[in-house]
Amino acid sequence: MICMGVKMNMVSNVKQGFVNYKELDKKDKFNFWKEALINNALYILLIIAVIYTYTQNQRFLTVNSIVNIVSLSAANIPIACGIAGCIVLTGTDLSAGRIVGLTACISASLLQSATYATKMFPNLPVLPIPLVILIVIIVGGIIGWVNGFFVAKFQLHPFIVTLATQLIVYGLLLMYIMINGNNGQPLSGLDKSFKTFVTGSVVSLFGVPIPNYVWYACIVVAIMWFIWNKTTFGKNMFAVGSNPEAANVSGVNVMKTTIMVHTLAGCMYGITGFIESARIGSNQANTGLNYECDAIAACVIGGVSFVGGTGKIRGVVLGVFLLRIIFVALNFLSINQNTQYIIKGLIILIACAIDMRKYLVRK
Amino acid sequence: MEKDVLLQMTDICKTFPGVKALDTVSLTVKRGTVHALMGENGAGKSTLMKCLFGIYGKDSGTIELEGKEINFKNSKEALENGVAMVHQELNQALKRNVMDNIWLGRYPKRAGLMVDERKIYNDTKKIFEELGIDVDPRKIMSTMPVSQRQMVEIAKAVSFNSKIIVFDEPTSSLTEEEVEHLFQIINMLRDKGCGIIYISHKMAEILKISDEVTIMRDGTYVATKPAKDLTIDEIIKLMVGRELNNQFPPKTNEPGEIALEVNNLTGQYSLLNDVSFSVRKGEIIGLAGLDGSGRTECLENIFGIATRKSGTIKLDGKEVLNRNSREAIKNGFAMLTEERRSTGIFGILSIRENTVISSLKKHKKHHLYLSEKSMMKDTKWSIDAMRTKTPRQETKIKTLSGGNQQKVILGRWLLTDPEVLLLDEPTRGIDVGAKYEIYQLILDLANRGKIVIMVSSEMPELLGVCDRILVMSGGRLAGEVDATDTTQEEIMALAAKYV
After folding, report:
1. Which residues contact A208 (CB under 8 A, 6 or more apart)?
2. Which of A85, A198, B366, B368 could disulfide-link A261, Cβ–Cβ 3.0 to 4.6 Å?
3. Nearest chain A CA: its distance from B348 CA (Å)
4. A310 touching B (Cβ < 8 Å)
5. Complex ipTM tops 0.90
6. What are its E.C. numbers (chain B) (predicted)?
7. pTM attached to this predicted model
């Protein structure tokens, strides 16, 4: 449905654009092309990159590779959708990665197979999966609530609040994986039902199995799209992000909205943690480290701007894919790891600069 | 004794989109005199000063300093050429100390590298002694009262050897004793041969300190007279002397029963002090007064976005608490704020989102989602009823003109179905045509029995639209006048009662 919407929009945009274009004079036409080129630079670069990578390495566009890109992106979508809300409020969330780590370890510890030798809770039966999902969502939600509470109540910048909470969460995580004589060992030996639930497959594409978590990511996207576009909370969130003073005058509960955005983000990190837990299989203290960086980058590339009050779920999904395609392409081109970091950094810089152009007031 | 001319501004014009802010205004400041610049809010005093300092570029006219034509590009350049300003709102680095603030940006260096702390300390000390200011140059700005910080600002102007010093409402936050001290300093500067431009609303003060008075009105020059030949009444007459013409729709509303009673309203953090009044159904009440007289604070206290210390509000005989904006909206209040851009519109959101934000509850279906269709319907109603000019509902509100933005916000509030509308400067920054439409909307609302309380700095507007006018002064209610048989002079005199 979202894809259709995009298509329809594009068709009508192109039609309208053509009519307008005919009316321009020569200098304006040049400007038109310049603007079009800069505003779509990201997509143009992406297409060039895909074509170039394909010519260098034909395996880049095999079904296998495409399913790989899709599933890697899907794993990142919940965390990006969560953090996007914080960015809409002109904030950020540095604690996302650590919350993913904590919830991943909790999921793993609760779903280790009963026969595994070094089980963390030896006497605990394998819990029902919905219960575990609920637990990690609640754990993530509570930490998110704390973030939101300090941001809203004490007017602290989210950067500071989440900088502090990510340390606290990391401490809790380290303590958690020490209990019952586990001594910080990686949590593995996950129950088969858990692995099947997340990484198993019910649908295949040309014989390549699509992992289940791709569908879970789709559900998350649908729910988030609904929340952002169809609920009072969503409208209030954009209002607060756009102009908190005006929102207050207009009767929006700014504090409640801010807390809820952060809580929802925490819940999303919980879901990410749950999926990552099964996807990685062996969970340790460093699981989730720096996930927030990729998530923030994806949001910004997708047009969720730090200006606040603007952004679309569609953009977040697009951003996640875009970033992933480029990461995978760099691997296919066998560019060495160190250079990859530089290229990633440059992409984020350029994307933000292009995004910011839209909001600059020209004098 | 004839004194020679220091600053000569001739035929200055400045146009903003839709408004002629300055129309051939001239100002002559002589050496060793205090020249008062007077006029109502919006008469063009600050615009004229901004043209002098190059904050705005003037459209035409010339500015001469000591016979040489000047054209400053910014206030820094003006300062370096001996033209300084002591602002109403002090722009200072509050976390730094006194001497840092005075020498900021031009520290004397030692060995071309280190700031010469001793030299700036001694220089500061010397200026302070000269002006009779008793402040330690090493004190941190934020620990000092406003009056002392103002002295620092004056000392800074002196340190630049300024020939022209502009004072913009310098006494608005000073006690009487501090005003005395300030006047001593101003007199000292005058005796040194400086030309002082003194902007103030306070008539008594003007007559006491100034040598000459120039009066402006609606962006035009009215007169320049020696202060000793003027009385307060004459100044008021020159300031407001204009005819009311046909810029208002005919008044058709008929006030009914008393519906809103405000008793002893006092603000916790604002200067609002013991304000009581009552309003009838279908009545339009004006709140007049100078800037900072507590008009906005009064509305904010009623609407619950400013903290109340004491006082009660009754609507239809029932006490309403209005502890925050949500409660106020539920109780049937609506508030249009003064600063449209900073507290009114959501610039990057669409007109539809801007319209429905305060009435989202109405569009909820099955307690779950918002109906797009119903929101579109309401937005369409608002656009039609307000005659908002916009291509589409999805247009971003920041691309509209001020008048159309105001209509969107008014529409937003009408959709909450309010009984009491609190309008703070509803026509500020709006062109004349749109103003008339807004007046008509206000009258229509009153005709339907709504209560309208409207703050405005434009007196003709208050006289033309309101039934009664409450005049505020220094946070208190200075008096109440009937809009049909009062004069601008009477309102002005009341507005100056507690300042």
Report:
1. A63, A64, A67
2. A85
3. 7
4. yes
5. no
6. 7.5.2.11
7. 0.77
